[in-house]
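Batch job 17 of 40 flagged for manual review because the log was empty.
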Amino acid sequence: MDNKTLIDDIVARIGEVILGKEQPVRMALACLLARGHLLIEDLPGLGKTTLAHTLAGVLGLGFQRIQFTADLLPADIVGVSIFDRDTNRFNFHPGPIFSPLVLADEVNRATPKAQSALLEAMAEGQVTVDGVTHPLPEPFFVIATQNPLHLIGTFPLPESQLDRFLLRIEMGYPDSQAERALLAGEQRQQMLKRLQPVIDLATLQNLQQQVDAVHASDALLDYLQNLIHFTRTAPLYQNGLSPRAGLALLSVSRAWALMAGRSHVLPEDIQAVVPGVVGHRLQVRDSQGSDSGVDPVSHLLESVPLPA
């Protein structure tokens, strides 16, 4: 089975549970294949948690959910060492972060200290407790959900921590056809219990390795650099995109190309993933008027010409 057929099969299986959301599902898969972490920002009740459960079931990944609250401690995430009198030593008890797929639910309801414990694990792929380093599983994929900042009881993630997420997506309200099917259909929880893996761990890791081999031509890299340079010079943006953002854009574009069954990246791949990759990294200058109605991502794509 070729990569496109396999990915289409995975998307279709997820689409049996997550109705009418093919684009967010594909973006989530691209994030996983590019070995990144995903931030889903939207109102409660729009399927963020269900998407994480469904991905774990269809991909055959171990799953842990961490409900972020104001009293959550770092040890509740990474684990703790407990003294064993029988052996006269400390034994480490792993926390829920030691799972291939971790759902950090409502991450911005926890204090910055608890948020930092999660994001450190995401960045390092390991945790250190009492001077001992413990590697996290491979693959390791964090899906964090975030409520809009106008809701009560939220602690905004600073830009430096937002940058740790490879992609940010929104689920949005379902269209009328999908919502009707949802209302008339079976409970999602019952469907989740019956999910069977479409691929095994070895296949998933092979797909991740193939992403690294997807070719990006010099002209394609020129286009990517032009996009990054524009954000650093245009007066609309408060800060330009960092080198890490450029690498993120390239890796997700490679994953997007692989999912389409191609061995090379097209400019259209970059354009498809730009909103998810740079949307949480670009901010409009106050002097430009953040309420001016100008979409920073659309402005970027419209201002930088495609390669000839």
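Reviewer: the log was empty due to a logging misconfiguration, but the result itself is present. The chain has a mean pLDDT of 89. Unflagging and moving on to job 18.
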